[in-house]
Specification:
about 80 residues; 434 Repressor (Amino-terminal Domain)
Length: about 80
């Protein structure tokens, strides 16, 4: 597991599913992000693209349990 596993797993838990995370990313980017992308970020030593950190932070904040972008992409926002 990567250093990015725990915060991304928190986002998944807050939003409900990997598909819900993908939907947030798709809405933000206008390009189709699939559940498989999220699974790869989670399980294949790939980190979340930094452009998605803020939308995911905002989406978790709306659910009442914010996962800050600094935790999602500490190399960029740390």
């Amino acid at each position: 597991m990567t250093e990015f596993y725990e915060p991304l797993q928190e986002v998944i838990n807050v939003l409900g599913t990997q598909a819900a995370v993908a939907e947030v990313c798709t809405e933000f980017s206008g390009k189709k992000i699939t559940q498989a992308h999220v699974s790869q970020w989670l399980n294949r030593d790939q980190k979340i693209p930094p452009r998605f950190a803020r939308p995911l932070e905002d989406a978790t904040e709306k659910k009442g349990c914010v996962v800050p972008r600094e935790r999602l992409c500490p190399d960029v926002f740390g």
